Amino acid sequence: MTVQRTRLSTIAGPTASGKSDVTIDIAMDINAEIVSADSMLIYKRMDIGSAKPSKEELEKVKHHMIDVVEPWEEYSVSDYEKDAKKAISDIMKASKVPLLCGGTGFYINAVINGTFKTPGADKKIREELQKRLSSGTSLKELHDELKKIDPDTASRVHENDNYRITRALEVYYSTGKTMSYFRELHDKESNTNFEPLIIVLDVAKEELQKRVELRTKKMMGSGLLDEVKDLLKNGCTEDLKPMKSIGYLQAVKVLKGEININEAIEEINTETIALAKRQLTWFKKRTGTKWMSPHEKNSIKDEIRRFLRL
Fold first, then answer.
1. Is the pLDDT of residue 103 over 60?
2. pTM of this prediction?
3. Does residue 140 sit in the same domain as residue 77?
4. What digits encode the pLDDT tens for the residues 180-222?
């Protein structure tokens, strides 16, 4: 028996590629609501450094999966999958079109293919890895170790991401199998309820660099340092995962007197471009994507209309 799958359009791409602008414009035209697939937009209070849509943009089109949890609350990819799928279902029940929009590949994949199952925690190995870190081994060294064991997973994870690096190593040392093995196994067995159209915004390298620099300048001018001061006053500690993300990490360094604002801006730009490269690598590995320029809004709109048969 053939299962009828729901058609789901996604506008994806690297950070600062103009996803929100394109998606809002299209959503207004096709009676859609937007489901964010951005791992920073889920956090309340973190508006400027995450480049959250403005109040005016949020009023134009209803957004889901924004301001879901506090920065100190745990929120997994599985949690996102459950909540995002409920949002999509609610949108469709209201006779509207769901549009998935974001640059977090883990989130997009979770909605379309589901989250892959990995072995349970191995407390002993996890403690050994944390002991190594507290004894002088750097996260970069653990990331380099992961590169040798599982280069595909290492390419998806930032070298400052303590949780994902140690989790991938923990899985390997406890089972002898890599995260990539479990991911591939899931991909072979997954039976998705969605038929996806994934449009990736393709921006020239020089233009992306300019967009990133403008984004950083806007963040600083909009009060990123004040936002971080408020976060630290209201229960956020600098060791929280979202506080180690690009922009927030550098703002904390400025407030502690470790770097000046110009150095922070340069570091944010460099790290954002590196993030964009990793995102592009992820999307290039995925089959079935359509690469289009953010300047081709009408063509993107037509592509989505054809796909959804609107």
1. yes
2. 0.83
3. no
4. 898 788 666 665 789 999 999 999 999 999 999 999 999 999 9
Residue 1 located in a structural domain: no
Last residue of a domain, one of 135, 166, 185: 185
Contact at 8 Å (CB) between 145 and 169? yes
CATH number, domain of 148, equals: 1.10.20.140
